[in-house]
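[Q] Does anyone have a clean structure-token version of this?
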Amino acid sequence: MDMFKKYKVLLWDFDGVIMDSMPIRDLGFLEVLKEYPQEQVDALIAFHQRNGGLSRYVKFRYFFEHIRGESITDDEVLRLAGKFSEVMLSLLINKDLLIQDSVQFIQDNHQNYAMHVVSGSDGQELNYICEQLGLDKFFRSIHGSPTPKKDLVRQVLLDNGYNPDEVVLIGDSVNDHEAAQHNAIDFTGYNNVHLHGLGSYVTSFDSLV
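[A] Here you go.
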């Protein structure tokens, strides 16, 4: 726990940090976009895997505007995101997907820190998943998209009057690092070797318990 002794607040990403859900989210995009050419969907999956911290709303818009080169309305983005959420809720209420060393650390230390979730996943969906899996009681609050992560972090800091010097964001993507930088808080990378050198890095929370 020495790694985090300078902090009073831990902000957690969810996908890839608390739950090994990225492969499931791949399936969600494949299912929702199954009517489109496979090579285009593959390009989106690659973008999704590089940008774990971005919301599905951004990714669906990217698919149409950048990969397919066509416009898409806000209503259509919401419709696709709704279909994606249906797939997610059918697959993610599964304790076997939880990353055990992270969850154990959270359970053992939630009284030692103020903990919050700031995720690119849909906020309503995320709250439901955490409630169903018994995780919600460990966090002061749980936040997700469509609000961008950098704005979620800023709002948590403002709402709670936290000193940025006492806050660290734990994430597995470059987007998480950017959200931390944007809000002048520290960053700890996890579960993504490409984050070495961007703030601190933890290989396993088992060593911190």
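[Q] Thanks! Anything notable?
[A] Strands lie at 9-12, 114-122, 141-145, 167-171, 186-190, 200-202.
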